[in-house]
Automatic annotation (TrEMBL):
Record-linked InterPro entries: FAD/NAD-bd_sf (IPR036188), FAD/NAD-binding_dom (IPR023753), FAD/NAD-linked_Rdtase_dimer_sf (IPR016156), GSHR/TRXR-like (IPR046952), Pyr_nucl-diS_OxRdtase_dimer (IPR004099)
UniProt family annotation: Belongs to the class-I pyridine nucleotide-disulfide oxidoreductase family.
Species this chain originates from: Anhinga anhinga (Anhinga)
GO biological process entries: cell redox homeostasis; cellular response to oxidative stress; glutathione metabolic process
Protein name: TRXR3 reductase
Pfam families: Pyr_redox_2 (PF07992), Pyr_redox_dim (PF02852)
SUPFAM superfamilies documented for this protein: FAD/NAD(P)-binding domain, FAD/NAD-linked reductases, dimerisation (C-terminal) domain
Entry keyword set: Disulfide bond, FAD, Flavoprotein, NADP, Oxidoreductase, Redox-active center
Length: 211
Protein backbone atom coordinates (compact mmCIF):
# COMPACT_ATOMS: atom_id res chain seq x y z
CA UNK A 1 0.00 0.00 0.00
CA UNK A 2 1.48 3.33 -1.08
CA UNK A 3 0.13 6.48 0.54
CA UNK A 4 1.21 9.96 -0.56
CA UNK A 5 0.35 12.67 1.95
CA UNK A 6 0.54 16.26 0.74
CA UNK A 7 0.04 19.67 2.30
CA UNK A 8 -2.03 22.45 0.81
CA UNK A 9 -1.09 26.11 1.05
CA UNK A 10 -3.95 27.82 2.91
CA UNK A 11 -3.51 31.31 1.48
CA UNK A 12 -6.83 32.04 -0.18
CA UNK A 13 -8.82 32.97 2.91
CA UNK A 14 -6.48 35.16 4.93
CA UNK A 15 -7.01 38.46 3.13
CA UNK A 16 -3.93 38.56 0.93
CA UNK A 17 -5.99 39.79 -2.02
CA UNK A 18 -7.02 42.85 -0.01
CA UNK A 19 -3.45 44.11 0.17
CA UNK A 20 -2.47 42.87 -3.28
CA UNK A 21 -0.15 39.99 -2.43
CA UNK A 22 0.10 37.69 -5.44
CA UNK A 23 -0.13 33.92 -5.14
CA UNK A 24 0.39 31.10 -7.59
CA UNK A 25 -3.19 30.19 -8.48
CA UNK A 26 -2.21 26.60 -9.28
CA UNK A 27 -0.90 25.71 -5.83
CA UNK A 28 -1.72 28.69 -3.60
CA UNK A 29 1.94 29.34 -2.85
CA UNK A 30 3.54 32.76 -2.74
CA UNK A 31 6.29 33.89 -5.15
CA UNK A 32 9.04 35.88 -3.40
CA UNK A 33 12.40 37.50 -4.16
CA UNK A 34 15.70 36.04 -2.93
CA UNK A 35 15.07 37.98 0.29
CA UNK A 36 11.62 36.39 0.87
CA UNK A 37 9.87 39.64 -0.14
CA UNK A 38 6.49 39.34 -1.86
CA UNK A 39 5.31 41.70 -4.61
CA UNK A 40 4.10 43.97 -1.79
CA UNK A 41 7.35 45.50 -0.40
CA UNK A 42 6.34 45.39 3.28
CA UNK A 43 5.08 41.77 3.22
CA UNK A 44 7.45 38.83 3.56
CA UNK A 45 6.83 35.09 3.53
CA UNK A 46 8.94 32.16 4.76
CA UNK A 47 8.69 28.39 5.01
CA UNK A 48 6.61 25.85 3.12
CA UNK A 49 4.36 28.59 1.75
CA UNK A 50 7.05 29.76 -0.70
CA UNK A 51 6.57 28.94 -4.36
CA UNK A 52 9.37 26.78 -5.75
CA UNK A 53 11.21 26.36 -2.45
CA UNK A 54 11.87 23.30 -0.29
CA UNK A 55 9.24 22.15 2.21
CA UNK A 56 11.63 21.41 5.05
CA UNK A 57 11.34 22.60 8.66
CA UNK A 58 15.09 23.41 9.10
CA UNK A 59 14.92 25.55 5.94
CA UNK A 60 12.00 27.55 7.33
CA UNK A 61 13.81 28.05 10.65
CA UNK A 62 16.99 29.21 8.94
CA UNK A 63 15.12 31.53 6.57
CA UNK A 64 13.20 33.05 9.49
CA UNK A 65 16.35 33.74 11.49
CA UNK A 66 18.12 35.33 8.54
CA UNK A 67 15.08 37.43 7.62
CA UNK A 68 14.82 38.77 11.19
CA UNK A 69 18.52 39.64 11.16
CA UNK A 70 18.19 41.48 7.85
CA UNK A 71 15.12 43.42 8.93
CA UNK A 72 16.26 44.31 12.44
CA UNK A 73 19.95 43.48 12.82
CA UNK A 74 21.62 45.12 9.87
CA UNK A 75 22.60 41.81 8.27
CA UNK A 76 22.66 41.13 4.53
CA UNK A 77 22.92 37.33 4.63
CA UNK A 78 20.28 35.53 2.56
CA UNK A 79 19.02 31.99 2.90
CA UNK A 80 20.76 29.48 0.61
CA UNK A 81 17.99 27.41 -0.96
CA UNK A 82 20.37 25.47 -3.25
CA UNK A 83 22.92 23.79 -0.99
CA UNK A 84 20.39 22.29 1.38
CA UNK A 85 21.24 18.77 2.60
CA UNK A 86 18.26 16.46 2.76
CA UNK A 87 17.54 12.77 3.08
CA UNK A 88 14.81 10.32 2.13
CA UNK A 89 14.65 7.84 5.01
CA UNK A 90 13.74 4.79 2.98
CA UNK A 91 15.14 1.39 4.08
CA UNK A 92 18.15 2.21 1.89
CA UNK A 93 18.63 5.91 2.58
CA UNK A 94 19.13 8.53 -0.11
CA UNK A 95 20.91 11.80 0.68
CA UNK A 96 21.58 14.83 -1.50
CA UNK A 97 22.92 18.36 -1.41
CA UNK A 98 23.00 20.88 -4.23
CA UNK A 99 21.68 20.30 -7.73
CA UNK A 100 20.26 17.20 -9.33
CA UNK A 101 22.11 16.22 -12.50
CA UNK A 102 19.15 17.21 -14.71
CA UNK A 103 18.91 20.63 -13.05
CA UNK A 104 22.67 21.14 -13.32
CA UNK A 105 22.53 20.42 -17.06
CA UNK A 106 19.75 22.99 -17.45
CA UNK A 107 21.69 25.67 -15.59
CA UNK A 108 25.28 25.00 -16.66
CA UNK A 109 25.05 23.00 -19.89
CA UNK A 110 26.17 19.38 -20.16
CA UNK A 111 29.48 20.38 -21.78
CA UNK A 112 30.41 22.40 -18.69
CA UNK A 113 29.92 19.56 -16.22
CA UNK A 114 31.87 16.51 -15.13
CA UNK A 115 29.96 13.81 -13.28
CA UNK A 116 31.86 11.28 -11.17
CA UNK A 117 30.08 8.21 -9.85
CA UNK A 118 30.63 4.83 -8.25
CA UNK A 119 28.82 1.87 -6.80
CA UNK A 120 30.10 0.84 -3.37
CA UNK A 121 29.89 -1.96 -0.84
CA UNK A 122 29.40 -1.13 2.88
CA UNK A 123 31.53 -3.22 5.24
CA UNK A 124 28.52 -4.30 7.28
CA UNK A 125 27.06 -5.97 4.20
CA UNK A 126 29.93 -8.45 3.86
CA UNK A 127 28.81 -10.80 6.67
CA UNK A 128 25.19 -11.24 5.48
CA UNK A 129 26.48 -11.40 1.92
CA UNK A 130 24.27 -8.65 0.54
CA UNK A 131 24.63 -7.49 -3.06
CA UNK A 132 27.81 -5.45 -3.33
CA UNK A 133 26.55 -3.15 -6.08
CA UNK A 134 23.39 -1.67 -4.61
CA UNK A 135 24.82 1.50 -3.03
CA UNK A 136 25.64 4.45 -5.27
CA UNK A 137 27.53 7.72 -4.98
CA UNK A 138 27.71 10.66 -7.40
CA UNK A 139 29.09 14.17 -7.50
CA UNK A 140 28.44 16.81 -10.17
CA UNK A 141 31.27 19.27 -10.80
CA UNK A 142 31.37 22.58 -12.65
CA UNK A 143 34.28 22.63 -15.10
CA UNK A 144 34.05 26.42 -15.36
CA UNK A 145 34.60 26.83 -11.62
CA UNK A 146 37.65 24.71 -10.82
CA UNK A 147 35.52 21.54 -10.72
CA UNK A 148 33.53 22.86 -7.77
CA UNK A 149 31.01 20.32 -6.45
CA UNK A 150 27.52 21.61 -7.25
CA UNK A 151 25.66 18.35 -6.69
CA UNK A 152 26.17 15.56 -4.15
CA UNK A 153 24.17 12.33 -4.08
CA UNK A 154 24.49 9.11 -2.09
CA UNK A 155 22.34 6.00 -1.80
CA UNK A 156 23.35 3.74 1.06
CA UNK A 157 23.31 3.13 4.82
CA UNK A 158 23.32 6.27 6.96
CA UNK A 159 23.14 8.53 3.91
CA UNK A 160 21.73 11.31 6.08
CA UNK A 161 24.78 11.31 8.34
CA UNK A 162 27.15 11.21 5.38
CA UNK A 163 25.34 14.02 3.57
CA UNK A 164 25.20 16.29 6.62
CA UNK A 165 28.97 16.22 6.94
CA UNK A 166 29.71 16.88 3.29
CA UNK A 167 27.11 19.69 3.16
CA UNK A 168 29.36 22.00 5.20
CA UNK A 169 32.24 21.37 2.79
CA UNK A 170 29.99 22.11 -0.19
CA UNK A 171 28.96 25.42 1.42
CA UNK A 172 32.69 26.22 1.70
CA UNK A 173 33.25 25.65 -2.03
CA UNK A 174 34.34 22.00 -2.10
CA UNK A 175 36.13 20.97 -5.32
CA UNK A 176 37.02 17.60 -6.83
CA UNK A 177 40.69 18.31 -6.16
CA UNK A 178 39.99 18.85 -2.45
CA UNK A 179 38.07 15.58 -2.31
CA UNK A 180 40.98 13.77 -3.97
CA UNK A 181 43.38 15.30 -1.43
CA UNK A 182 41.20 14.20 1.51
CA UNK A 183 42.30 10.99 3.22
CA UNK A 184 39.36 8.64 3.58
CA UNK A 185 38.42 6.72 6.71
CA UNK A 186 38.54 3.04 5.78
CA UNK A 187 36.16 1.28 5.63
CA UNK A 188 33.36 3.86 5.72
CA UNK A 189 30.66 4.67 3.19
CA UNK A 190 31.79 8.31 2.99
CA UNK A 191 35.26 7.18 1.90
CA UNK A 192 33.94 6.54 -1.62
CA UNK A 193 33.83 10.30 -2.27
CA UNK A 194 37.60 10.56 -1.74
CA UNK A 195 38.45 7.83 -4.28
CA UNK A 196 36.15 8.59 -7.23
CA UNK A 197 37.94 8.45 -10.59
CA UNK A 198 35.32 7.26 -13.08
CA UNK A 199 33.23 9.81 -14.96
CA UNK A 200 29.84 9.10 -16.49
CA UNK A 201 31.07 10.45 -19.81
CA UNK A 202 33.80 7.77 -19.93
CA UNK A 203 31.25 4.96 -19.88
CA UNK A 204 33.57 2.81 -17.74
CA UNK A 205 32.23 0.05 -15.49
CA UNK A 206 31.62 1.21 -11.90
CA UNK A 207 30.82 -2.15 -10.29
CA UNK A 208 32.80 -3.06 -7.17
CA UNK A 209 34.17 -6.40 -5.96
CA UNK A 210 34.91 -5.54 -2.34
CA UNK A 211 34.50 -2.95 0.41
Amino acid sequence: VLIAVGRDACTRNIGLEKIGVKINEKNGKIPVTDEEQTNVPYVYAIGDILDGKLELTPVAIQAGKLLARRLYGGSSTKCDYINVPTTVFTPLEYGSCGLAEERAIEEYGKQNLEVYHSLFWPLEWTVPGRDNNTCYAKIICSKRDNNRVIGFHVLGPNAGEVTQGFAAAIKCGLTKELLDETIGIHPTCGEVFTTMDITKSSGQDITQRGC
